[in-house]
Amino acid sequence: MDKISATLHKSKIAKNPHPILLINDVPLEMWVTGFVFDSDGTDITNHLVPAQGWLIDDEDLDAAWEILMPSSVDCSTIVPLLICPDDMDLSCTVIAVEQEITNETVIWHKFGLVTHVINHIPVSVSWDKRNQSVKFKYDEFLSACNEFKRLTNEEWV
C-alpha cells in the first residue's frame, strides 16, 4: 500500500512554501515527473502546482476540491491534480488522475494531460500508457485530503 500525506513545501516556482500532497514522501509534482508529456514529448510536470488551492476561478476551485474528496464508493472520477502556475486555470496545462474509491482504498489508476473541460470538470484526458498506479488506505487518503484543505485554508500565506 502506498502512503499519502499533506504538508507545506516550497516548489521550484513558488517564493514561499505552499500546501501539497506527498506520495510515499515525495511531493506530487516531483512524483509524477516522467509520466506526462506534451505533444512534442517534453515532460511538463516539474513546474506545476496543485489545482486545489491555486485555481483562481472559484467554481473551478470548488469543483477541484469536491472531485478530489471521496463521495461515492465503487466508482471512478477524473480528478484535476496539478496546473500551470502562470494561468492558474483549467485552460492551460492540467494533469489529472483517474481516481477509484472503494470501501477500504483509493486507487489512482493512471495520470494524463487534460484535453477538454466542460463546466469546470475535466472530461477528456490523454492518458499516459505506462502503469503508474498507486493505492492508498481510504482513511489515510481522507486524512491527507483534510490536512491538505486545512493547510490551504489556514496556514498558507
Q: Explain this structure to me?
A:
The protein contains four helices and nine strands. It has helices spanning 28-31, 51-54, 58-68, 138-155, and strands at 4-9, 18-23, 26-27, 49-50, 75-83, 94-101, 105-118, 121-127, 134-137. Strands 4, 5, 6, 7, 8 and 9 form a six-stranded antiparallel beta sheet that branches. Strands 1-2-3 form a three-stranded antiparallel beta sheet. The N and C termini lie far apart (33 Å). The longest helix is centred in the last third of the chain and has 18 residues, at 138-155. Helices cover 24% and strands 37% of the residues. The chain has 157 residues and is of the alpha+beta class.
